[in-house]
Structure formats: C-alpha cells, structure tokens
Automatic annotation (TrEMBL):
SUPFAM superfamilies: ACT-like (SSF55021), Formate/glycerate dehydrogenase catalytic domain-like (SSF52283), NAD(P)-binding Rossmann-fold domains (SSF51735). This is D-3-phosphoglycerate dehydrogenase. GO terms for molecular function: phosphoglycerate dehydrogenase activity. Its EC number is 1.1.1.399, 1.1.1.95. InterPro entries: ACT-like_dom_sf, ACT_dom, D-isomer_2_OHA_DH_cat_dom, D-isomer_DH_CS1, D-isomer_DH_NAD-bd, NAD(P)-bd_dom_sf. It comes from the Bacteria. It is an enzyme of class 1 (oxidoreductase). Catalyzes the reversible oxidation of 3-phospho-D-glycerate to 3-phosphonooxypyruvate, the first step of the phosphorylated L-serine biosynthesis pathway. Also catalyzes the reversible oxidation of 2-hydroxyglutarate to 2-oxoglutarate. Keywords: NAD, Oxidoreductase. It holds the Pfam family 2-Hacid_dh_C. Belongs to the D-isomer specific 2-hydroxyacid dehydrogenase family. Pathway: Amino-acid biosynthesis; L-serine biosynthesis; L-serine from 3-phospho-D-glycerate: step 1/3.
Amino acid sequence: MTFNIKTIGNNIDEEGLKEFGTDFAIDKVAENEAEGFICRAQNFHDYEFSKKLLAIGRAGAGFNNIPVERAASEGIVVFNAPGGNANAVKELVIAMMIFGSRNLKPANKWLSDQMGTDKSIDLAVEKGKKAFAGAEIAGKTIGIIGLGNIGSRVANDAESLGMKVLGYDPYIAVERAWEISSHVQRVTSLDEIFAKADYITIHTPLTDETRNMYSAVNFVKMKKGVVVLNFARDEITNKEDVLDFIENGTIRYFATDFGSEKFYHNDGIFVTPHLGGSTAEASLNCTKMVAHSLERYLKTGEIINSVNFPRVRQAMLTPYRVTLINKNVPGVVARISDAVAQENINLANIVNRSQGDFAYTLLDLDESDESKVEALVGHFKDSENIVRVRVIKK
Ligand SMILES: NC(=O)C1=CN([C@@H]2O[C@H](COP(=O)(O)OP(=O)(O)OC[C@H]3O[C@@H](n4cnc5c(N)ncnc54)[C@H](O)[C@@H]3O)[C@@H](O)[C@H]2O)C=CC1
Ligand SMILES: O=C(O)C(=O)COP(=O)(O)O
C-alpha cells in the first residue's frame, strides 16, 4: 500500500522528506486525498480535516497552531518534533541576550546614519561610542521559565558563560532534569525569578498559565533595567505593557521573535521574524523526526512523539493488527474483547492507553483469515465511542 503525504505551506525540508520509504508518495495528491500532513506553524484551527487524514506531523515544537483535541476526536494523531529545533532557538536567544546587553540595535542605527569620509566617521565613532557602552552577561542572573528542550539548553549555556541561573518549571520531566547543570538553581516561584533576575527568558508552550505572562502585573515585580526575551509565543506578551515598561525604564531591552508595528522602531526592542527554529539544521532534524513518526504510525500503528495520543510501542508479530481510536469511556475495552471472542479470533496482544478524552487500542490478531478480520472490524463501524478503526496487514 502507498501512503500519500502532503506538505502544507512551505519550508518543509526536502532532504528530510527523503526519510520516507518507497511506499510513501509526497505531494502527489490533493490535500483531501492524503493520509498524512507535514506542516510547520500554519494555522489549522479553521481547517476542515478530510476523513482520509490519519496523522499530522508538525515539523517543530509548538503545536498551538493545530486543534489537537478536535483532531483526536476525528481520529487524527498529531506528532511534533521535540527538541528538533531546540539548539537553533537556544543559539538565537543567547545571541539576542548579548545583542541587547551591548546596545547593538541603537549603536548600529547610529552608525548607519553617519555621513562623511571614513576618517571623519572614525573620529565621530570614537567620540560617540560611549553612548552605547553596554553590560556584560557574565556575573549576572538569568531567570529561565520552562526548562524543556530549549530552556534546559539555555540554562546550561548561560551557566557556562558565567551567569547565575535560576530555573522555574513546575512540570519538568525527570529525564530533562538530569540534563541540567547542577549549578542551575531551581526555584519554585515565578516571583523569585521576577525579583532576582537581570535577564528573563521564557521557553514554555502557550497555555492559559503562560498567556500574557509578560504583562504589567509581572513587570512591576521585575528589577529596574531588566532584559526580557520572548522566543516562545506571541500571546505570552502584552505589547502595550511592554511599551509602557520600556518607557518607564523598568525594561532596558526586550527581544522577541514576534513583532508588532509599534515595536519595530523602538530602540529598546529588537524583533526577529519568528526565526527561532529557522536554521537548515533544525528544519532537517524536525522533518526527519516527523517523517519517522508518520511512517511508523501509518505502517505499524505505533505512536511515538504524539501530542494528542499516548506513546504505544509494540513490535508487530502477528498477521493482522487492528488499531482503534476510541472515546475514553467505560466499557469500550470489554466490548472490543467481546467482539474478538465472538469472531473466534485468537488475540495475541492488546494494548490500551488513554490520554484525556481519547484512548488508543491496538489488537494483535493471531489470525490470517482476512474475512474474519473484516467481520471483527464490522463490530466497530458506526459505533459512537469508536472514532477510527484501521487494519494493518503484516
Ligand atoms: N521561536 C521559535 O521559532 C520557536 C518557538 N518555540 C516555542 O518554545 C516552546 C518550548 O519549546 P521546547 O523547549 O522545545 O518545548 P518542551 O516541551 O521541551 O519544553 C517546554 C517546557 O515548559 C514547561 N512548562 C509548561 N508550562 C509551564 C509553566 N506554566 N511554567 C513553567 N514551565 C512550564 C514544561 O514542563 C516543559 O519542560 C514551544 O512550545 C514553542 O511555543 C519552539 C521552537 C521554535
Ligand atoms: O517549533 C516551533 O514551535 C516554532 O515556533 C517554529 O515554527 P516554524 O517551524 O519555524 O514555523
């Protein structure tokens, strides 16, 4: 069987797409004919998914552009590429922190406005440069909100650049915690970050807790002259409040990957056009990662790196595998087992895992009679609690 994958939007790494095996066709059919999508930050909130679509690979980290709960309810598994672009974001954040500390935006603007000969400009430079004398980051305190793939890397590098590092992440994954330098001090309150840090950077998803975190209610708690960075998501920042707190001198410099017309001409603000994950390396990594996840899911039903379904790994050793996406309500597994028994099929293995309102069930059938497998699947069609059934032949 050939699976059709459609790349949505541009910037999907062509080299990365070569990871797909020969039984995958890329961009050969219309969107509503594809079993899999690969996308980046395109907004899918108003998108009507076709019944054929089984999986979406977000070639990046943040997935707030995809309605992941609706996708689950329509039987669509959404994957992302955790860590695939983390180094790219980290490097930009470190660069922007130093860029701001050394006043490079106004300094460069001032320099480009100079007129005259090289000699006269050299004289003006030596006289005028004191206006742009900056500060070093070594010895300063950085507060990092979110210590996942990006935040943990920023923490380790900031520490090796001589900074004192405070990290806040109430949901930190155990394996990530092991990767963070023991010199990074874990704090349990955001207010401690706001009160102590000279530099503050956020590396969390956009959630109800982080939306608007950069706003007046928190800016008033920050040190005068703080440098604030947002390379996570636009909606974390209240832009009017940033302008006010630049104006009153609380924020010395604000760097962000998410712009606004009011930001572009402000000397205290530096905006990059959502470039955090835009490197050749990150784009290759992320495309490869989601290509692997999609291929594995479509061919074997295994789920790795999904954001709306639990991880399910199970080697396929039987002639048939049936996978079901079902509502996470009581009685479904019993019904599935009953149906298997009614069709007199030997069940070699059953895996059932839930996440939120939905669950994923994988049945390995020790049965090579296709008609019996079809009869089994017949039990699950048109059931209000089962939203997707697939049969995978070894
Ligand atoms: N500017 C860009 O191009 C890019 C932006 N991003 C953004 O950065 C975010 C983080 O990316 P990764 O580090 O790769 O994700 P990740 O999932 O590895 O890490 C996120 C961390 O945030 C923590 N967290 C969640 N809610 C929190 C809260 N309320 N307070 C403190 N910590 C909290 C989690 O426990 C986790 O450790 C993404 O969700 C995305 O929005 C990611 C990649 C590129
Ligand atoms: O990975 C992320 O969360 C990003 O924000 C990067 O977005 P992009 O893939 O560059 O459209």
